[in-house]
Design a protein that fits this description.
Elements lengths: L3 E2 L3 E2 L8 E2 L22 E4 L4 H12 L8 E7 L2 E6 L9 E3 L4 E5 H5 L4 E5 L7 H9 L1 H4 L4 E4 L8 E5 L2 H8 L3 E3 L2 E7 L5 E5 L10 H11 L9 E6 L3 E6 L2 H9 L3 E3 L2 E8 L18 H4 L24 H10 L1
Antiparallel strand pairs: 1-2, 2-3, 4-6, 4-8, 5-6, 7-8, 9-11, 9-13, 10-11, 12-13, 14-16, 14-18, 15-16, 17-18
Amino acid sequence: SSSHLQDGFNQSTSNGQKQPVHRGETPGSSQLGASNWQTLAKYVVVSKLDCQGLKSTIGFIIGSRADQDDIVIRKVVSGLHLVFVKDEYKSIEDGCHQDQKIMIYRFKHLMKKTKTAIFGGIPKDHSKDDMELYVRHRKKSGGGHIKACSDVTEDGEMAVTFVDHEVLERVCTTQHSLDSHELVVAPCPPITSIVVEGISLPAEGATKRFRAKIDNYFSNEDHGGADIVEIEIKEKRVVISFETEEVVESVCTHSPHKFLGHVLTVKPYSQFHSYFHPEEEDSTESDGAASSVSSKKTKADSSASGGKDEDEKMSGADKEEEEEEE
C-alpha cells in the first residue's frame, strides 16, 4: 500500500526514504523510484506560481485534457521547480510562455548549459562547510571538484558551481538525503533578466505611464532590446525580464543607456545567482554577481570568495579520497 503527499509524492517506502510517484500508482509500479526520480524530471520551471497553480498552467500548456495526476511538481527553492510529465504528452520547448509568465527549460538540455546547481531543503544545522564536504564526495552526492559554493540561506538553500558539466549532471540526477532530510536539486536556469540602476522614479511613483516608458525603451531594438516579459520596479532599481539570454547580452553590451536624461547602469541579473552575492540595497557590492557574469560563458562561474578557485582549499585527505574514488 502507499500513502500520498501533496503534489503526488509517496511518503513512505520499504527503506524509510521518501519517493515520488504518480498518484494512483504504487512505488513498485512507478518509474519515479527513490533512486532515479530526478533523472526522469522533464522540465525546470521558473515561476512565481505555487505548486497547484503551476500544475494547472503546465496542464494547459501540454493540452487542455491533460490529467492533473500525470503532472508532478517538486519545489526546489522559491520560484524554481522540477516538473514531471508522462511521456504521452507533447514536449514543451525551452523558452518563455508569456501568457502564463513562466520560463520552461528541458531538464536534460539545461544540464548541458550550466555548471551551477541550486539545492533546496538543506537542514538548518548544516553549514556551508558541511555542504561543501557533501557535494565534493562522489559516493555520497555524485559530486566532485567545485569552483564556487555559496552560503546556506536561512531557508536551507544554496548554489554550487562545479568545475565541469559531467559532475553537475551526476549531482542533478542523484537522489539526495542528509540526516533523513530529502534535498532537492536542479540545474540553474540561464540569466534572462537585467537590473537597471539610475532610473529616477517620478514623485507620483511607478505609474502605468512610467512603466510604459520603460517598456518602450528596453523593448526597442535600437537599445539592444526585444519583447519584455516582466518589469519589477523597486525603490532604487528596476528588474526587467526578457525571453532569452541573448537579449540580455544585447542590452548589456549596448552603451551608453540614457533614459529621461539619466545615464543608466545595466547589468545581467538572476535571483538564483544572487546566492553568491546576497542583495544589499545600500551596498555598492549588491548585484556583484550580475556584473561578473558573461552571457556567453557559463553563468555564476565567478567565485563567492572573490574569484579564487575553491579547489585550492581542498585538504590533502579530500583529494586523496577523490582520487581513490575516480
